Fold each of these.
Amino acid sequence: MSRLLKLNIFRYNPEDEQSAPHMQEFVLEETDSMTLFIALNRIREEQDPSLQFDFCCRAGICGSCGMVINGRPGLACHTKTRDLPGEITLLPLPIFKLVGDLSVDTGTWFREMYTKTESWIHTNKAFDPTALEERMDNKDAVAIYELERCVECGCCISACGTARLREDFMGAAALNRVARFLIDPRDQRTDRDYYEIIGNDMGIFGCMGLLACEDVCPKHLPLQNQLGFLRRKMGITSIKRLFSK
Amino acid sequence: MQTIYTDFLVVGAGLAGERAAVETAEAGFSAICLSLVPARRSHSSAAQGGMQASLGNSVMGEGDGPDVHFADTVKGSDWGCDQEVARLFADTAPIEMRRLAHWGVPWNRVVPGKSIYYKGGKQFEKVEAEEKEGLIMARSFGGTAKWRTCYTSDGTGHAVMCTMDNRCAEKGVEVHDKTEAIALLQDGETCFGVVARCLRTGELRVYLSKATMIAAGGFGRIYPNTTNAVICDGGAHTMCVATGLVPMGNMEAVQFHPTGIVPTDILVTEGCRGDGGTLLDVDEKRFMNIYEPEKAELASRDVVSRWMTHHMREGHGVKSPYGEHLWLDIRHLGKEHITGKLREVYEICTSFLGVDPIHQLIPVRPTQHYSMGGVRTNKDGAAYGLKGLFAAGEAACWDMHGFNRLGGNSLAETVVAGGIIGRKIAEYLEGSEAEFKTGLINDEVKKQRSRIDALIEGRDGSENVYKVRSAMQDALHKGANIFRTQEGLEKCVADLQEVLIRAKKIGLRSNGKGVNPELAAALKLEGQVKLALMVAYGALMRTESRGSHNREDYPARNDRDWLTRTLAYWKKPEDTLPTLEYEPASTVVEIPPGDRGYGHAKIISADDKKE
């Protein structure tokens, strides 16, 4: 006989006047290779069709299913129930606006982040469809891809002490995004341009170094290394600015 | 109720939709993409392999060019494609890959000198040329004559999606995420936008546009086992079907991939078999070498899927709580190989299954993978039946895939088609005047509100949406799968017709307030069953085997009678079957139908006289 899992799930539907935030208990029989993706869908289809949660690729690639699983932000799709105790508590990610139950609005947050960091290649070169592609060192290409692996699940932001204290903190995902463009030879922005974006308390100087972002990142991105890299780079830029005044 | 106006409206914010939106934005038009999820979560981002384009930079791609790519594509399609479109695609793909590089995609690049690669489990050596250093690299893929697939490590879709979405942000293309289009606005001649449901609040919203595009991906979720993301449910197709005017092309052409993992149907790459992995049955015995002595596990996707299903039917499947499956064995490749060259497979197995593929077998089964069918368009991406309506990507039947798609051609199609069709739409926007009929808009909104109220109140019945959906998926799985027969398809059609009656009697169990997911599922279910009927009925009528469409009772490819594309309409809402019409597969023929060089050999030639 398999285990009977007890899932305590946060419930609240802001669009329903009758609804008040509370925890609801569901009991479910565990099956082989069960993930939280399977468990939550089963609960919705068999027990409560109004339960809100987000999944999309269910393969750890898209980042939709970030939630707080037994106290820790993570992706529900690749969390296997057999790695969890028989009692599982699920809460929506903090910091992002709640849509309902376990579903939060990460889209708006990340869209604002693209705007703040001007998340695109800045170049004055025009594309020539008749020419060969511009050459690039494969090492650079691989290094850029390593940072571009972020799936925008929001776990790093939800686990961040500074982000809890100040709403305008850009967080690890944004700093990682800046680092991605900073190392891209196609982007013509200067260190000074980047300093304008992140050389403040909302950016690199806001981080308290608690390291949770990197601890919870499901893609194992080197988020603290990026912060260190940006701080060094921006520190030098800052000193240069002082002397050039 | 909010009404939003834009020049160009895209239903979907994956690669095809965003690429087209960028094109129109650059021409000075406003563009909005609607998306069920934040933009970078679109299913495009899940593609790992890469994009085919005949750049010929790698030593293994020498001698490649658009002509070779075109020929591979036409053969792959089993001569079911529109050759004019395949030509357009093959010629444009190299330019689009270079454009993506300019926009920021970190393509892997050529590293000169010696390196090792594997083929059929054996090790080979190649030497990349010095003068090609830093140009876009390509990798090998099934069904291609040359190494032609451009890639960024094992996350091509994700990387291209990031760059495309960045480009959208730069060019001012808005993405309205958590928004689901539920009905087209049209007057019987022209489409002028959609009614949408906000997935943050549940409210209805009207979007008015001069041009509207369906770029919402495939509809794999009408099957119970699919590699598709949960958002690939055909919701956008159902809006087109509901008009009665817009036909779906070649719905019976459904591709199955041999190695979806059980239970979640996540794909593990063909590379496992390419590198020497084997398929085993319940007794842990190999079987592909019995059915296909020469190619064994390395036969084409369709062929392997067919034999796997056959073998399970013969009683050699492994029973599990999630249904029967077989095993994929890569243990003999060793730890170094598995955690190196097959890193992604290793991670999928450990993260999603809790299976360590270095020491354990991987449970796999053939799984629905790609929909060659979709909204039928001409070569400019304009949908049949309604002016101002366009489609691109997997959602469309443009039709460069015919009855079978080659690996690496789907992701490339999204961007190439998005670019080509985006330019055509910009021309259309330049020369057209919009007319929005307020009476029709009000009527459509009222109709949608009344549908929602009926579902919430259970006015038409109390059928359970998830149970009816399951019944639809089961019927398709049993009757319109890898193997198809007249008997199976007739039963499937009959079952689906019963499901259709039940789908009209859904009543919600929850209150339907706010973002309610049960309501979202209920709103599209009747349309999904109609799509399923188009698949099954189209397959029943097509008495031949072509590409992925396999009739056991008609094993030959019949060019004499079936060198055609099926057009499926749902003419009246009360109809119980789609209306099928046919058109020639291609009006321009560069390569006359011939042998593909793999798969089944029997062909009834178009030259054979009709009896």
Amino acid sequence: MKSKWYTLLSVIMLFSLLAACGGGGTSGDTGKAPGSGGAEAPSGDKGETTVQFWHSLGGKNGEYMDALIQRFNASHEDIEVVGTFQGSYDETVTKLQQAIASDTGPDVSMLERAYVQMFADSEVLEDLTPYLEGSGISADDFTPGLMGHSVFNDQLVSLPLNRSTPILHVNKTLLDEQGLQIPTTWEELKEVANALVVKEGSEYKRYGVTMPYDTWYPIAMISQAGGTFFNDDNTSIGFGDNGVGAKMFAYLKDLQSTGALYYPPAQDSGNIVNSMFVEGKVGMMYQSTGSIGGLSSAVDFDYVTAFLPKDEVYANPTGGANVTMLSSSKNKEAAWEFIRWMEMEEEGGLEFILQSGYLPFTKKMVESEQIQELWAKEPNRKVAYDQLEFAVDTNKDVAWPEIMHEFFSAMEAIMYDSKDIPATLDTFKKETERILAQ
Amino acid sequence: MKTFDLKIVWTALGYLLKAAVLMIFIFPFLWMISTSLQTFRETMTFPPTWFPASPKWGNFAEAMNAGPFLTYFRNSVVVTGSIIVLQFLIMIPAAYAFAKYKFPGKTLLFGMILLAFMIPGQVTFIPVYLMMADWGLVKTLLPQIIPFISNAFGIFLLRQYFMQIPEEIIEAARLDNASEFKIIRKIMVPMSKPALATIALFSFVSHWNDYFWPLVMTDSAAVRPLTLGIAMLRETEGISNWHIIMAGNVILVVPILLVYVFCSKHIVKAFVYSGIK
């Protein structure tokens, strides 16, 4: 028994020695590792410039991003891009904050669009305007609906990359069975959703429409009803006094009360609604365009996408992430070359967009043969792009991340606990004003 | 006769209760294993499938091929292994000193150690990160190891254990001219194996599973552990491939089970002994 322990201890001891030796050099022997951002630190013996690129893409999209980086490295002898997955969008933000503070930040980073303001306000993002001019690119070359979070204080601080938008996913087979049309207005949505409800006893066997627990969808509906998330001078909310918020939540509560709306539990809501939709337990779903690929391969019914129904107007926010250059970068020329190549070249962004299903972010991309062919084959993806004509991003403020948490609390109070809507919104409004005044 | 019957009833009830508790604990494991063998379509079904129509062993290969998993695995082993060894090297003499020596400031020092294990890691990670960045260590495995080489909980637990070892044995050894180091090695350590095994297991599980600390402390895949590799299997937006993620999780959990099997005998002893005394 004693010898066993000593063996174990000495084995472990060996590992710790390995770790100590591996200190600086561990990176060296992982060069053969396939995929996933090939994180080996290049030695620079070829006079290469290394560009650190942080991103938040896991799963399939992470593989497509790695492939993009490899294509870049293969076509650029003097630049080596090292892509590193840094966790979710929020985790990447945390990492960036601490890395910038300790001067260990990357050259280029992916940044969830709603966080752009916060970083731009701290003046840690490089103004890309001179770089664009130097490369003969105009800000008008990009898809207009996706530029809502790119300009801050007259500086162009980020460019769209993996961008999405909420869209209506429809089980056309179910609607056809009932002779129902795809709804285009809130009124129609209410009728169709109620017609889809199947109730046995006190148990709902099928719901009409659902949406993940997220601020995205209420924000979309606020714009549709003629409100804005923040008022014009960003001192308060733009859906309080005009009654838009109360109207929107009352509409949702009304749908919820008849089973027309299934509002999922907060935890893992995205996966819950997806699998309910796939199983035909719900006829329609508000969900990101990012789900189109996965849903297409999972459903066995006629699946189509449509614009989010309008109230007074069609409107939708956008989502996903932008790419940005850190002003602390010591390799700005090389960093820009990577951004330029990724944004403009066919084998860069276009290839990635075709693979991943995110929205095409330049006009040239939209006009390309490949995208046109894809849209002809998969009209569901075109719908998402067409809807961008009505994109409005109204949740723009450096304090958004903080206010978002308050908005979640208000949503929970109303959707889960059926708290009084005007009172809840009033509390939220006061909280927002307090935060914005800071 | 009647009391005999009652005994059977109670035993049966006891087993039922144990079975019920066992189910609660084992359920997530079974779910994970089941999901890791399903197809994408099966993971989406509602109500969920328990038994995949035909087990897809390929999911494991797909999870392994999603990144440099051997590197991740080696990093996990090196980091966790180093932490445990270094913890033992510090913890055993410290616990021995606290249990068997009298010196000024002992209570104060011990109080500080107890305080140390009440502070959550999230509170200290920014200063620690800045320190590690200052020393140029963020591209190595060391920031994942150094902050954990002292284990306050371990010192506390081991001290309690050492205190139960009779003074007479140590006195006898000293009369035989044994050095303090020899006393630790030949008497204290062998007699507290169950406690050491328990501490090692707790330490192993918590560092093997750690996600937050390695994420904030590392910048490249070359020094990242398995937990981060598996987090990378998850889609940021869109639909997650749960079958692949769960295959990754099974790979992550297997070493824990193996270590548990190895340590379990000692752990049971640790609890039995402390119960008797």
